[in-house]
Sequence to fold (334 residues):
Amino acid sequence: MNTNLKTQNDILLQVKNLKKYFPIRNGLFSKVTGNVKAVDDVSFDIYRGETLGIVGESGCGKTTVGRTLLRLLEPTAGSIFYEGENISKYTRSQLRPLRPKMQIIFQDPYSSLNPRMTVGSMLSEAIRVHNIVPNNEVEKEVHRLLDVVGLPKAHSTRYPHEFSGGQRQRIGIARALSVKPELIVCDEAVSALDVSIQAQVINLLKDLQKEYNLTYLFIAHDLSVVEYISDRVAVMYLGKIVEIADAKKIYANTLHPYTKALMSAVPVPDPDKKSDRIVLTGDVPSPANPPLGCTFHPRCPLANEGEVLRSECMSETPILDEKQSQHFASCHQI
Fold:
């Protein structure tokens, strides 16, 4: 699915019909009685040097997508192409040369760092394992990485508990950069930080992207942050992408009713301006038993306007179609 005017050669990573199901086991013999459909038939492209943002409610499958395309989780079905090569069936030994190219920044910077290792030890370990620089230049490279993320080289002898949350996240970024990656999955990379620190880390990510020509998959639930950093935005609901387009288009001209509800929840920094809040009825269905047809139809205002509309939305799964130029959405009523 090409959702940009760029050419096929510009695609760094391509995901086709990706599925990730987690089995539900019950009984004495742990018999599989169902599946949690965390990611259900997702397709998208990521172009070199761009930032693709993924947004949606908690539990919609954003993080699972990121971890599955890095093969930290094994896909149930579908294909993952990196630079044209299908890596979805690669063995561990085949993946090893690709690991430095595809990195991740985790949501919780503290739990992702080894508390028994100094910052210098963590960074130098990755550099040595992947032979990034000669052994006699490892310490110099560690100091360079700390300088790149705005930390003094003296911090290389400290342990994770000696840093603030923002500093730990910078260390996480330095660790991702240590192996000279091409693609970085930012998994809620700023959600655990204070607002002022969020701005510093986001600006750091943007500066690093320009300097090293990095490609980001930016997973978040803060729509304002995603708007600022992303070139394109994909909106997920219950394991599926329901809308994807250029960031400016999707914020200026939202098409899918779920995306409209999300956008209406963004706070307006003007006390005199009233926002038209769209309040969705009902709860998010369980991914273990998603609704038939359009998974959003039980909460969708469009699907409940008339019997004809309701019937179509309940029985047929909508396809992610190009509704406007380079603007894709999956809805029967658009």
